[in-house]
Amino acid sequence: MQLFYNPKLDSSVSQFVFTPEESRHIVKVLRKKESDNLLITNGKGYIFEAKIMVADTKKCKAQIISSTKKHRKMYWFHLVVAPTKSNDRFEWFLEKATEIGVDEITPVICDRSERKIVKQERMEKVLQSAMKQSMQAYLPKLNPITTYSEFVEKEREGLLFIAHCEEDEKMELKRRVAPDKDVTILIGPEGDFSEKEINKAYEKGFLPVSLGQNRLRTETAAIVACTTVNLINNG
Question: Where is the Ribosomal RNA small subunit methyltransferase E methyltransferase domain (predicted)?
Answer without folding.
Answer: 76-229
